[in-house]
């Protein structure tokens, strides 16, 4: 056998070995590699939607949004179609949290193809509850910072003719701020009471590009159980993300 044939056979063997190595990676390795791969991408775009439902019913009108990440951690998100603007949250942060809380990661054969592998990730309930407690407290803290600006009094006039609205007096403005702060304090107590009784369980589907080992899409479904004023409440939250890398 001449040298050229030996080189050709060797190249084929190396290629087959590389393919086998890629195919034999464990689900946990694929998850870690996809998260690490995304962390190395300097700039990318994404789109998604988030919905909140009660019991087992999903939200029929989820909030849609699209965003970009630049310089690894600069996030810009915009709501679409009049949707409520979500928090400026880095998708990589979400994937890191899912990986940290994962207790079971498995491949879904019937949803995987030659181009992509789909993972099903089940998270630890205690870690999930702790993560969501931090998320919800963070979202509430953002709300607390949105103190209403000086509100004008309602326009006055008769019929269809209205005069220019008058600004609130210092006393009225002070009363408005006191009412706002009171509502915030009540909402904070309600939130903490809810979090103290909250149980949470997340199941995620992560589609990964088999060649690039980068995430293609993510679906996170979380079921919550908690109490409000002593009454049990069940809620679910679904987040879907599509990556444009």
From TrEMBL:
Q: Which domain of life is it from?
A: Bacteria
Keyword match Signal:
yes
- Output compositional bias ranges, type Polar residues: 153-166
Task: Extract the signal peptide range.
Answer: 1-22
Q: Which UniProt keywords apply?
A: Signal
Q: Where is this region: Disordered?
A: 152-173
Instruction: Report the protein name in the record.
Output: Sporulation protein
Organism lineage: Bacteria, Bacillati, Bacillota, Bacilli, Bacillales
């Amino acid at each position: 056998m001449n040298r050229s044939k030996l080189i050709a056979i060797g190249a084929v063997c190396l290629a087959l070995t590389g393919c086998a190595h890629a195919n034999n990676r464990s689900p946990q390795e694929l998850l870690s590699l996809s998260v690490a791969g995304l962390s190395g991408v300097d700039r990318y775009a994404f789109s998604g939607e988030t919905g909140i439902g009660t019991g087992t019913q999903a939200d029929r009108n989820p909030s849609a949004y699209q965003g970009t990440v630049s310089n690894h951690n600069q996030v810009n998100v915009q709501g679409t179609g009049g949707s409520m603007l979500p928090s400026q949250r880095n998708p990589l942060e979400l994937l890191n949290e899912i990986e940290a809380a994962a207790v079971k990661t498995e491949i879904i054969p019937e949803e995987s193809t030659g181009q992509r592998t789909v993972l099903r990730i089940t998270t630890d309930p205690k870690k999930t509850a702790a993560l969501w407690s931090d998320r919800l407290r963070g979202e509430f803290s953002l709300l607390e910072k949105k103190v209403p600006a000086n509100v004008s009094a309602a326009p006055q006039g008769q019929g269809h003719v209205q005069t220019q609205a008058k600004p609130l007096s210092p006393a009225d403005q002070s009363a408005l701020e006191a009412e706002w702060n009171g509502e915030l304090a009540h909402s904070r107590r309600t939130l903490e009471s809810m979090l103290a009784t909250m149980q949470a369980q997340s199941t995620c589907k992560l589609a990964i590009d088999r060649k690039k080992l980068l995430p293609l899409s993510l679906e996170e479904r979380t079921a919550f159980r908690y109490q409000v004023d002593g009454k049990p409440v069940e809620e679910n939250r679904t987040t879907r993300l599509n990556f444009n890398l």
